[in-house]
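Researcher: Re-running this chain for the archive, since the previous output was lost when a drive failed. Same request as before.
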Amino acid sequence: MKIINLIEDTKGAGVCVPAHGLSFYIETDAHKLLVDLGPSEETLNNAEKLGIDIAGVDTVVLSHGHYDHSGGIMPFVRRNNTAKIYMQRTAVGDFWSDDGETSGGERYRYIGIDGGIAKLPQVVFVDGDCRIDDELELFTVKHANHPIPSANKTLFVKSGGRLMRDSFDHEHYLAVRDGDRRILVSGCAHKGMLNIMEAFAVRYKTAPDMVISGFHLMKKGEYTEEERREIADMAEKLKEYPTEYVTCHCTGIKAYEIMKSVMGEKLKVVHSGDCILSGDERHL
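Model: Regenerated structure tokens:
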């Protein structure tokens, strides 16, 4: 099994450019798939630099309806018009970010997907959970017993001309079966990684062996003591699972460092172009 990051916010040691967004290339016994496609065509350019044949991809999973995960989809379909694209039906919503009064530009910014994506014939709209085959399943969080990331407070969906706090019902997560091993791949974990882990455990009666996800903890300024405690508390609870974690993108370096101090070797960070798994060999 191979898992390679195609793009995320920080530059790695290789030739791939970074950008605010996320995309992973995954090879299983039966599939060549992409989880998200980053913010732009740069994702595909990075794939080319890594020797990945985009035309050979058969499956795309869009984790949720934000531009920084979907911006590469329209350029992708110009190179590959046969791969199925799985997304929640609600991912076509009208999503906005509150950048604050001191942002230097318009306070409210559209962050949804390109409207043309929903019209593509290869799109498979999903309503809730979806079993793709023996290797791949999509699942959702139905109950939240733990706090969601506080960074969600600036994210909205527009309905009837009004901005309302986004509930992230358009977010789903990929469970990959690789022999006896299960891997959970998420985009930003807007529903909260602890809630996602519980949903996984309920569905599969076990914890994942590996989690690959942003944790949506990034903040422009300094964290308050309460926010630092919130991050450390989440890390303590995640550490209790027999799981290895790989994070990136919206976690942010400062939050990663807080979590790393708690989780030690159970938590690693991936940069743009990094290889996570290659056959039986791990690169991180």
